[in-house]
Amino acid sequence: MIVRLIVRRMLFLVLVLFGISLITFTLSHVVPADPARMIAGPRASKSTVEKIRHQYGLDDPAPVQYVNYVKGVLRLDFGTSFASRKPVRDDLERYLPATIELGLYAFILATAIGVPLGVASAVKRDSWLDTISRFISISGLALPVFWLALMVQFVFFGKLGWLPDGQRLPIGVDPPRTITSLYAVDALITGDLNLFWLSVQHLIMPVVVLAYGSLAVITRMVRGGMIEVLNQDYIRTARAKGLGKNTIVVRHALKNALLPAVTSLGLQVGLLLSGAFLVELVFSWPGIGRYSVQAIQQIDYNAIMATTLVIALIFVLMNLVVDILYLFLDPRIDYS
Amino acid sequence: MSSEQARPGTFVPGTPAEDQPGPETPLGGLVKRRASNQMRRNLKRFLIGNRLNLIGVIIVVIFFFLAMFGEAVAPHDPYKQDITGSKLLAPSTTHIFGTDELGRDVFSRILAGTRVSLQVAVVVLTFAVIFGTLVGAVSGFFGGIVDEILMRFTDMFLAFPALILAIAIAATLGKSLTNTMIALATVFWPWYARLVRAQVLSIREREFVEAGRSIGLSSSRLMFRHILPNSASVVIIQITLDVGFAILSTSSLSFIGLGAQPPSPEWGTMLSTARNYFRDAWWYTTFPGVALTLTVFAFNVLGDGLQDALDPRSSRR
Asked: Which residue of A has its CA nearest to B282?
């Protein structure tokens, strides 16, 4: 049953990926700019441009180009970046870990604060804790993440000087030996505490800013779920048979209350990925978001398409994982 | 459209306005009065019962006012440069929010920026709602293979995080506000298609549609006069929630360098430039951000409040 569901979801995934590749490909081909001219540069002669056009297969008919593009993508070959002249794949391998590091910690932080806060504010409604949690959930959705980043940077770097303004490590400091590609973790594994502390300092601002939006959503979902569950009959029964408040919340209510929050996990991934674009830009964080923005500014189509495709892939895969997770958590759901 | 009529569950078969008993009949007057009393009570609860809603409404009203008359009431010309005399001046009585790197008055520019934001929200949502409603209505009404194809097509767009798809589209089309609007409309419509389809699917099974069909109403009349008007409240709530999101997305794209281009007073564009001066001119990065946050906040609160008032079943609190 579960296997069948997963197979079905996988088939849909293939369809979605096909669609995504079609959208990205179409996008890069309806644009007025001439990629061959972009590669050759503004001063190249007409014949050079033609040569490059042929060399990159840009003179083939569109369907042929699409097939070649998909073939390439299947081999994880995204073509050459027009700007860096290196394979886009190399760039992705270099920049993706930085974004994962940022997103992962932000997610952990948001969950670690958001779940207890949501539960507490539902249990003690209208208390000061509840006021804080409601303030977070409302402001988190309205605060532009890039502005929050600017403000935090202004205060903690510009005014107080407590934290570095950006980057993963200070210029001139070598990163730790690559094990997980997450600097803080790698530094800890290799036992370099100084480097660990440095990388943590650089992580604090971008992670907190990125986490804020997710924190808002998680707190809101958990609070809402908890309030609903606490009003249900089986909780009243539990209370009637004399169970303590903590036992009821932890043993009986929490699991059901968390279900809506789990559904929002997919949303979280989208939020974190989009947020990373803006946060990385403000904090000069060398991740895939900043790479995309640079690609956009240099009109580097191959890089734009590749990052869009990779981000969509991460998003779709995470949503698949969430769906499967949900199935285990809530046996009542029947997806067939 | 009155909120009462749009509310799911209270719709009476065949009640486009002209079919209703007129106020001259005693019963009609009573019905009308009762409905308007109910509405007034709802509105009162919506505004007074919840202080947050009231704040939201006030900010939204100010926002609309400024979008229309902002440039007229602005104390200075938002585009007038004065590089020699008033570059990056701190807030004072002449320039209450200070000036920018070209000596322009930040307060006046923020006021002028409301129009850009409103314009984007209106254009983007108009296209998204029309196209999304069309797709959703056709999909839900005809079902079968049409539904399957249209919904898989819709799902492809939903497979992207919205902002990132918008960035990719705007990036390929080129840096401009128009292209940003196209990009945002492209990522907004699928949500309306989904929403309207779900509404149509549930409403078309209701008795009054059955009744309409049995007296021989055509499909298009059923659709446009009966099914779609009943979906309106849900769509209106979604639009209110999306206005904030559309404004926020535009500013995000402008901040990256894609949306509105200088010298536009769009808030994201202002912040994008202000970033370079954040150590010397805190006012320049602070105030456009405050304006943006307040606006998005107000529309979110309003959308939430409307949702609670009009569609209690999906209360999210």
From this structure: A154
For residue A24, give every residue at least 6 positions away whose Cβ sits within 8 Å of its Cβ, in sequence order, or none.
A305, A308, A309, B168
B41 found inside a domain: no
B268: closest CA of chain A, how far (Å): 9
B158 belongs to a structural domain: yes
Question: How many other C-beta atoms can be found within 10 angstroms of the C-beta atom of residue B155?
Answer: 16
Which residues of chain A are within 8 Å of residue B156 when distances are taken between CB atoms? Answer: 16, 19-20, 22-23
Q: Is the pLDDT of residue A28 over 80?
A: no
Q: What's the whole-model pTM score?
A: 0.82
**Number of compact structural domains in chain B:** 1
User: Is there a contact between A183 and A169 (Cβ–Cβ < 8 Å)?
Assistant: yes
Question: What number of C-beta contacts closer than 8 Å exist between A and B?
Answer: 136
Q: Is A64 on the interface with B (CB under 8 A)?
A: no
Residues of B in contact with A160 (CB under 8 A): none
Q: Is residue B121 part of a domain?
A: yes
Query: pLDDT tens across A245-284, in order?
Result: 777 887 778 877 787 777 777 778 888 888 988 999 999 8
What residue of A is the nearest CA neighbor of B298?
Answer: A142
Range of the structural domain that residue B164 is part of: 59-86+105-310
By three-state DSSP, how is residue B203 classified? helix
Question: Tokens 């995080």 belong to which residue?
Answer: B161
Only one residue has tokens 């669609």, namely A19
Contacts of B252 in chain A (CB under 8 A): 144-146, 277-278
In degrees rounded to 5, what are phi and psi of residue B99?
-125, 165
Q: Is there a contact between B297 and A139 if contact means CB atoms under 8 Å apart?
A: yes
Task: Determine the pLDDT at residue B127.
Answer: 95
Interchain CB contact of B183 with A (< 8 Å): no
Q: What's the pLDDT tens digit per position in A159-191?
A: 888 988 888 888 777 888 887 878 888 888 888
- The predicted model gives B44-50 an average pLDDT of 66
For residues B45-73, give the mean pLDDT.
80
ipTM for the complex shown: 0.82
Task: With respect to residue B154, please indicate whether it lies within any of the assigned structural domains.
Answer: yes
- Domain harbouring B150, CATH code: 1.10.3720.10
DSSP assigned state of A276: H
B124 in A contact zone (CB under 8 Å): no
Measured in angstroms, the CA of B160 and the nearest CA of chain A are apart by 5
Contact between B238 and B42 under an 8 Å Cβ cutoff? The reply is no
